[in-house]
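Sync notes, pocket subgroup
Present: LS, DG
LS reminded everyone that the earlier model was apo-only. Rerun requested with alpha-D-galactopyranose included. Inputs:
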Amino acid sequence: MNARFRSLLLLTALAALPATAALAQSPVAQTPPMGWNSWNFFAERVTDKDIRGAADQLVATGMKDAGYIYVNIDDTWEDKRDASGVLHTNSKFPDMKALADYVHSKGLKIGIYSGPGTKTCGGFAASLGHEEQDAEMYAQWGFDYLKYDLCSFIPDVMQKQAPNDKAAQMKLMIDAYVKMSNALKAATAKTGRPIVFSLCQYGWDSVWEWAPELGGNLWRTTGDIDPHWDRIYSIASQQAGLEKYAGPGHWNDPDMLEVGNGKLTLAENRTHFSWWAMFAAPLLAGNDLPNMKPEIKAILTNKDVIAIDQDPLGKQGKRAYSDGEVEVWTRELQGGALAIAVINVGSDRYSTHPFHLDLTRLGLGAQQSGKDLWTGETVTLTNNQPVELPSHDILLVRLDHPQS
Ligand code: GLA
């Protein structure tokens, strides 16, 4: 589908919006949202107690002070609708309002999950035909964030109503996201509570081109992450080229963090976290907070790396060049500063065959002074200097005053 046709579809969909609502700049997510989400560690097992525990731990570990504010309940909180269409929670979540109050009492915000189809990805009740009712309920409960996951909307509506017509299917999908966006805005107008709108449709149909206009604050750019290097590398590679679509209030979302999950090595955890910071990605931790190891906490709370992610300029980094197994990414920061990430995506590269950093390819002069954000030390970079990196490790440097 070409870009002109896509804009036309979006314009038609937006025609249903009040003019001011469609164009209003969202006050939320001026930097990428930070927090924690239940899915990557707890999946369908998550309970009210786990959410309270996560909130407690964000405070106790210093993560809240480092910027992690949203505590997001993912799928599997839902039960059935009653005769008036009100969706009830299941026994794992006995009282959502009380839970939201608890999370707010810690100075945090809380998020919830649904989808435009009849069912969520986990097979629980979703919002089709009840969008306004659900949005108002989330707002009444006190929710600050909604992740809206396409899933059963594909067979329920897209394939049923427009079999074999991809363009019509796409229009139905965009309409569904516009509908919930409008429902959230109406709920906010009633309650005064702004709600971050997170689109989850796996990066289909160039979502980055149409999600910002309909009020999306973030949108998944790929399918699901899992805690394996190959998956993280594949997702990271798919971010190259998307940098022009991100900015304050609207962000590419390469999915939630797996830092501290599975069998990722420390180097892999560091690189994963640094990459997401270079991407200006939402930083939603997904690990077992009550049992977090100190070295994982040190990664998740590295203030210098978080400052890259949260840089107020909001300019997503780009892949400057790659040289076989080594990739160089750069990100422009406020005040003319620059972050450089050199990542060994392959096997060990030690002194017998190191990578040589070409500063001229970054438009930089032959000598630079900066800070290594993982050692905390001052470093000097010189043109063509060898960079020895173990497999999957990273050199992340911030230059406050890049020299041309
Ligand atoms: C999809 C999403 C995941 C998670 C699950 C829940 O797979 O992409 O992030 O929300 O659904 O069922």
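DG: The longest helix spans residues 166-191.
LS: Residues 39, 74-75, 120-122, 149, 200, 224 surround alpha-D-galactopyranose (CB under 6 Å).
Action: DG to write up.
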